Amino acid sequence: MATESAAPQPIIPTGQAVRRASIRAVAVVALTAAVLLGTVGCSGSNGKAATKNASTTPTSTTTTTTTKAERRAQSSGSADTGSAQGDTQVTKRPTTTSRTTSTTTRPGTSAATTAPVGGSTTAPRIGAPGTGVPGTAAPQTAAPGPTPIAPPQQVAVKAQVVQPDLPAGWGSVPATGMYAALLPCLGGVGGAGQPTAQVDGDHYSIGAPDQQVQVLTTTAVFPSVDVAKRVLDASSTPQFGQCATGVLSSQAKVAGARGGPLARVGGLPARGDQSVWFRASLTAADPAGGDTPLPVDALISPIRTANTVSYLLLVSTGGRVDQWMITDLSQGLADRQH
Predict the structure, then answer these.
(1) If you average pLDDT over residues 6-26, what whole number do you get?
(2) Residues 6+ away with beta carbon under 8 Å from 99
(3) Chain-centre distance of CA 210, in angstroms?
(4) Would residue 134 count as lying in a domain?
(5) 39 occurs within a structural domain
(6) Distance between terminal CA atoms of the chain?
(7) What is the pTM of this model?
(8) Mean pLDDT, rounded, of the chain
(9) Measured at the alpha carbon of residue 209, what is the angle toward residues 206 and 215, in degrees to the nearest 5?
């Protein structure tokens, strides 16, 4: 008698089996969360490394290896979606790159420039318009101090009429002894005979002997302004004019000079700190041997600036001294007395 086999009964999960399934599901969720957290952690560390090393991290693929216990838990809890894939399960995930910028301030500048870390920054040209970067400081120039006082000898040398003061065609010869010749005309002023420096200028002339114009100068620098003032005062008296007439005739080589004497005149330009003008109408013998004397216009001007006294002599035979000579030569002489 055949025995009928009982039909298979459906397997009804017991409470223990349900609990195992629940545990496996929880394990899968926990494992998945751990993997995700690991990914975020690696990304954060990579970002920090990029910042620390000041370089840009290229995109790369990172391999994460799970343990056998994790694989078993994954195999048990994911039978419906797939079993374990061998001894090693590999999960690939892209790493997150982080580009960091740094702010650097150039020393000596007021504006900050931002550039990628590890990259090159083109610095603004120093002093470029609109950059806020100051340019190279200009050399500092010291504030002007008091005008230096030239050595006495230097002043005596330059306080003369010189060739550039005269038009083309004038000749010159060295002259000496003019101040020494004027010294007796000063009436024995104390200190007049002991100047700190004394120089006679050249003797300039132009024209034929019967129509000749001449310019002479001499300068003395004294130890003090007081001495120079006394010398100039002594050079302003009628006695000086009378005495200086002979000196002028001798220095200018006016042969057979007659007339005079030199007398103070007004209407001529004042120069320096103190000045006077003497003028005389003289006559001279005709150098050609004629009987008619030649007219001579003669001027002398003592000029003082500070402790320097100069004498300007102008002589014109056969005519009057040109006004430009009186004006320009006296001004140039006074300007050089400093």
Answers:
(1) 59
(2) 50, 56, 116, 117
(3) 58
(4) no
(5) yes
(6) 159
(7) 0.58
(8) 76
(9) 40
- Given a cut of 90, whether residue 73 has pLDDT beyond it is no
DSSP for 272-318 reads SSEE--EEEEEEE--TT--SSPEEEEEEEEEEEETTEEEEEEEEEES
Q: Is residue 333 over pLDDT 50? A: yes
How does strand 90-94 pair with strand 197-200?
A: unpaired
What is the mean pLDDT of the segment spanning 74-97? 44
> Does 168 lie in the same domain as 63?
no
Closest C-alpha to 210, from 292, 274, 142: 292
Buried/exposed 132-141: b ≥16 CB within 10 Å, e otherwise: ebeeeeeeee
66-80, 268-282, 286-300: least confidently modelled range: 66-80
Domain that holds residue 51: 15-94
Neighbour-count burial of 168, counting CB atoms closer than 10 A to its CB (0-12 exposed, 13-18 middle, 19+ buried) = exposed
pLDDT digits (tens, 9 = 90+) for 213-252: 999 999 999 999 999 999 999 999 999 999 999 999 999 9
Torsion of CA 48, 54, 58, 64, to 10 degrees: -30
* Domains contained in the chain, number: 2
Task: Specify whether the CB–CB gap between 198 and 238 falls below 8 A.
Answer: no
238, 326: one domain: yes
Cβ–Cβ < 8 Å for 113, 124: yes
Q: Give domain status of residue 260, yes or no.
A: yes
Count other Cβ atoms within 10 Å, centred on residue 182: 24
